[in-house]
Structure formats: structure tokens, C-alpha cells
Amino acid sequence: MKHYIKGGNNTKKENKKQLPKSITIIVNKVLPVIVLLVAGFYFIPYASMNFQNNDVDHINKNNEAIMFYSSTCSHCRKVYPKIFWHNVLNFKNADKQIQTINVQNPNNKHYISEFAVQETPTFMKPNKPDIKPDMRVVSTDVQVINNFSER
């Protein structure tokens, strides 16, 4: 005759120490969203730099400035994200936007000779594209670019 011990077949699983439910939700749901947002903040401007502005058919004279850049230029890669986020923050104000033109793209090569672009990044006023030194600036210094666009 077999003798059964009460609860003998139902061995209790060892309780592992679990995080509180609120922390589990944060780790599983909120943290991945934050990671994606941070990654997007850093990578979206570079995707824009390489895949946008490939065929610019005209200069927008309402914009604050124009930035001629090359997507392979290290100086342009430094300043482009700042210009990208400047444009995102001012997306409703065309007069505060900086139009970006990738002169490396074959469709935009005519801008190099048309506006005498010799270096990148080159910033110029769209309504005064003449070659006067005070109407263009070649710089990666954000303060210099801000001072130029505010003039």
C-alpha cells in the first residue's frame, strides 16, 4: 500500500525574487521607447543628410539661409544635425528655415558653379546670393552660423 504525503506531488516552485510590477513595466515597455527615441535623435539627421535634398529644383527665397553641403564632408557631418534640428523646431516658419542642398548629388552640381561654392559647408542668404563676403560664410561654428543667419 502506497502512502501519499499531503502536498508531496505538488512541489512548490522556488519563488525567484522578481522586480516590482511597476519597474517591470518600465524596463519592458518604457525603456525600449526611450532607447529608440535617443537612437533616432542621433541617426535621423544622418539619414536625412544622405537621402534627402537629392534633387533641389529651386532656391526658396523665403528661407533664412541656404546650406550647401556634401554628405561625405566631415565638417558637414558635424554641422548638419544642428541645422536639421533647427529646421525641425522651426518647421512652421519658412523664414527661419535653412534650406539644405547636397552638392554631391549629380542633380545639384549646377549650384556649385551657379553660386560659386568652393567649400562645404557654405551658408548664404537666399535673397542675396551674390558673391559678397558678408553674404556667405563657410563655418562649422554654430555661433558664427547663428550670427550670419540673423543678419
Descriptive report:
This protein has 151 residues and is α+β, with helices and mostly antiparallel strands. Helix content is 40%, strand content 11%. The chain contains 4 helices and 4 strands; from the N terminus they run αβαβαββα. Strand 1, helix 2 (74-89) and strand 2 (98-102) form a beta-alpha-beta unit. Helix 1 (21-51) crosses helix 2 (74-89). The longest helix has 31 residues, at 21-51. It is elongated, with a radius of gyration of 28 Å. The chain starts with 20 loop residues before the first helix and ends with a helix.
Task: Give the helix/strand layout.
Blueprint: H1 21-51, E1 65-69, H2 74-89, E2 98-102, H3 110-114, E3 122-124, E4 136-138, H4 142-150
Parallel strand pairs: 1-2
Antiparallel strand pairs: 1-3, 3-4
Helix pairs in contact: 1-2
Which key terms come to mind for this protein?
4 helices, 151 residues, alpha+beta, elongated
Number of strands: 4
The strands making up the biggest β-sheet line up spatially as 2-1-3-4
How many helix segments?
4
| Elements, N to C (H/E) | HEHEHEEH
Report the sheet with the most strands, covering strand number, pairing sense and barrel closure. 4 strands, mixed
